[in-house]
Amino acid sequence: MRYEILGPLRIVSGGREFELRSHKMQVLLATLLVRYDQVVPADRLLGELWGQDPPRRADASLYVYISQLRKFISSVERAESKILTKSPGYMLSIGAAELDFERFYDLLSKGRELYADGHPQEAAAVLSEAIELHRGPVLGGLPCGPTVTNFATLVEELRLECLEILIEANLALGRHREMIGLLYSLTAEHPLREVFYELLMTALHRCGRSADALRTYHHARTLIVEELGVDPGRPLRELHQTILTDDAKERAGGRRSSVALPGLGRRGDL
Asked: Is the dihedral of CA 211, 217, 222, 223 positive or negative?
């Protein structure tokens, strides 16, 4: 059996997919999953389900939801439910079941290590597998309380880190053209995340599109100044200067610099 939270919440068992229809039941399962094998206090569960203003008899309602969730998981797993009552609340023991987030995190850690050790091809394969586990926003964007919301924020940061290292690995392998479209999309989705501009400028410059790389810098600088009132960070400014220097050398009849551009090598020189 596998619990999947890297997208709409669902349980996969015996080749079949099972989903909860009740919003409250989804929130309850999501909260227990992101804190699996830990006791989640009943007060926290009440806050996740109803916020700061739980209804009268909320404790009784929580008990009913727990009972219904136990029955649902038992029917899927065809075994006794793993939701345990432990003071001061409840705990979901996933046992031998899989959680897609754990698989993603293991692959990210392995890919990060492979890239840092100078194995971009192997890293790219592992990180691609990690990214493919994401079916959409964590828990399908399910409206939840702070516990699940904070977890979703963490997972999104890890997903973006995975993409960064994956793109760096592909650029190190010379796959510059293949990355340009993805990087344009990422800079549009995350306009203040400077690393994506660095990688896009690197890919463009290495494809002989220095003018586009410089336009990307000026676009990024304008956005960052307007939104934050500061200039881009040092790595992006240095990359801009490197491209200008390279182009000046080329116009003067010199050779293009072979020095690694800023934006690569942050996690290990290749």
From this structure: positive
